[in-house]
Design a protein that fits this description.
Chains A, B: Keywords: Hydrolase. The structure is a homodimer. Chain A is an alpha/beta fold. Chain A is built from 6 helices and 11 strands. In chain A, the strands form 3 sheets. Chain A has a 7-stranded mixed sheet, with helices on both faces. In chain A, strands 4-5 form a two-stranded antiparallel sheet. A two-stranded antiparallel ribbon of chain A has the order 7-8.
Chain lengths: 261, 261
């Protein structure tokens, strides 16, 4: 993956891809890329470590784009590895700039000064959320009610334990969309599904939803797909084809409920 | 009040005044100013209407600055009248660009197109909250826990009804700081105090707190002072002198509790 370039102010802006069909779904991928640009560089990690799930969510970006084409969604993704700054974490969360991720040490994060934490926050986290926020509130100002869904992947083996769940749906304060997506996916079969699996909001994994959707009362959910199921472009496409009908049905059901209520 | 100028991108940035003593209190005044800059102009209001409480919170800016000097706080305020865009409202709230405020019609807001709503949101609301957000998360990244307090004033007579409350403290999801401030103010006497008076979060008045403090678990509260009590610079100073000890004591008590817990 080529290293992203900061803008003229040294900020790493998120990439926003607006679907021509102009639907009201916004898909977000905070862990889309495993790029380690200057001034941080590789943080002392090997090439294999920079390819591993600790550095990004393999397959999530391709899956998100496949879903976006099918749903008419707009997508927003970060361009920098989550190990430099994890945009789904507040600056005071341990996972924002982790010194350790699962079984891996991250040498370049072992001793970060407060000034360096502030610099990474300003260069990566602030522009990411500013860009997403501007997009969301523009839609709201136009009288629309965007649905916000974050797209993640997880490793099949974590701390040596095999994970059986294949598709997790996680909610923040409002569980409505997550529960509806889960019901639609389970009704269609073919995937081992779980609510708030393999993580939940209690693990601080819903930061983006909490910051961007909850304050506006927007329907929202976080999706987690086991990364061995989206390990190639063809597999990403197949998973997008499988999940898109469940997501469409869930969003339609929720929108109908909102209108009736 | 002289009309504020937009920046080179046409955005009305908030004014951020950083206290040299570098304390961890951030005071916010969304309704500090009654300026009606181009391209919107006076919205068809008379000079008297543009001076009235519907256009701004008279006395709130001066009170906030008086408090900031005493608390060592940083202040953030909007420079544009709330009738052009109310930065304490989401774009889909009726009060964001109101066609009517109390007994007053606002002709320039009577028929706003969706595009105009989006343009005002982009020019005023988005930069205000981006500036405040960047400030808050910089402090968090530096290992600090800023306390966020919004400063407002309210009219003594509303829809013809006299209001007896003089000092209201309003909370969003976390009532801890609001309750502590209220207790400290009541213990000191001299003001008719009320919790969630003359409004509450149910009236959608805690948008800034909900967006900027609640997602980070920061202590927060909204203060409302009856504007006849801060109707001159001397009165603003006297009220700052009266309230600062109660705020200091409340913040200290809450910080001590957080450290003990």
């Amino acid at each position: 993956m080529t290293a992203p370039e900061p803008d003229q102010n040294g900020l790493f802006q998120p990439v926003i891809e607006i679907c021509a069909t102009g639907g009201d779904v916004i898909l977000v991928c905070e862990h889309a890329c495993n790029a380690f640009p200057a001034p941080w560089g590789d943080l002392g990690l090997s090439g294999a470590e920079r390819q591993a799930h600790i550095a990004w969510d393999p397959g999530a970006l391709g899956l998100m784009r496949g879903l976006a084409r099918r749903l008419g969604a707009t997508t927003v993704h970060a361009t920098v590895s989550r190990l430099i700054y994890d945009c789904n974490r507040a600056p005071d969360m341990a996972g924002a700039m982790p010194a350790r991720s699962e079984t891996f040490a991250v040498p370049g994060n072992a001793a970060i000064s407060a000034a360096e934490r502030a610099a990474r926050t300003a260069a990566i986290y602030v522009p990411f959320h500013a860009g997403l926020h501007a997009l969301i509130v523009q839609r709201i100002a136009l009288g629309r009610r965007p649905v916000v869904i974050t797209i993640h992947s997880f490793t099949p083996v974590y701390f040596g334990q095999r994970r059986d769940v294949e598709f997790g749906v996680i909610h923040d304060a409002d569980p409505a969309l997550a529960r509806t997506i889960l019901a639609e996916a389970e009704a269609r079969g073919g995937l081992v599904c779980g609510l708030n699996a393999p993580y939940s909001a209690a693990d601080d994994v819903t930061h983006t939803l909490r910051l961007q959707a909850t304050p506006y009362g927007l329907a929202n959910a976080m999706l987690e797909i086991r990364n061995d199921l989206i390990a190639s472009p063809a597999a990403e496409e197949a998973m997008a084809e499988r999940l898109a009908p469940a997501l469409s049905a869930a969003i339609a059901a929720l929108t109908a409920t909102a209108k009736a209520g």
